[in-house]
Amino acid sequence: MRSLRFAVLASLAAIASYPAVSAAHGEEAHHSPIAAAVAAPRRTPANIARDAYRHPVETLTFFGVRPGDAVLEYAPGGGWYSEILGPLLSGGGTYYAASPAGEFADAFAARVAADPARYGKIKIVSWPPADGAVPQGGLDVILTFRNVHNMAMDDSAQDTFKRFYAMLKPGGVLGVVDHRLPEVRDSALEKTSGYLKVSTVRRLAEQAGFVLEAESEINANPKDNADHPEGVWTLPPTLAMGARDRDTWLAIGESDRMTLRFRKPRG
Questions:
Q1: CB within 8 Å of 227: residues ≥ 6 apart
Q2: Which residue range is the domain that position 198 belongs to?
Q3: What's the rounded Cα separation, in Å, for the pair 55 and 39?
Q4: What is the pTM of this model?
Q5: What order do you get walking across the sheet with 139-145 strand by strand?
Q6: Integer Cα distance of 24 and 15 in angstroms
Q7: Structural domains counted in the chain
Q8: CATH number for the domain including 32?
Q9: How do residues 113-159 score in pLDDT, each as one tens digit?
């Protein structure tokens, strides 16, 4: 799939929204186990350089990830977040990295095997997981970073969100980050551009049974209008246009992204 290949190779309101993080909470976040995992010297320098766009401390804090949680990341790609989540959860939690079968899953597994100290304790599983590989109804958090647009493009989203719901504990969290398409744009672009409307992601999650608990502008980029010659892959890190207008795309930076926290109801 073109969108997944590019991503790996180059790397409202029925429910009230809450502010992502209060000032006090934000200060606390930067002295947390998450912050320590993000600041660890073992992380790849190229990955660290992207923190300015991905805001891992704020994002994982917003999703409520704790060191003792059972967390599944869907389609970790090149392992950008794995360098953080594996060590963060190694002390008392569990980190499942669930990848659809294929060359990208194989590359990820090889990368982890070659440098286990960098990634900590990771349980690599296939997607969908084999029976017993992940405790059904036993996960605290499921995370997916810039993957729902892939699901939308290959029509796997509805099934995947239902699986997410079944795998989470009652009260568990689904954290979603993805490229944001303005609501006024043609929905047909969701099949080609790599961008999705927030309303589309909400519909998928709510049809599966989730409730939108909060959304954040942590990963917003007002410079990105989501209208580029090669879709989201026009922008860094992919830079699909090559040298053509490169400075323009670099000046915009990485995409404008939604950050949504859904919860599986307790009752």
A1: 185
A2: 2-263
A3: 12
A4: 0.89
A5: 123-127, 94-100, 70-74, 139-145, 168-179, 257-263, 211-216
A6: 24
A7: 1
A8: 3.40.50.150
A9: 999 999 999 999 999 999 999 999 999 999 999 999 999 999 999 99
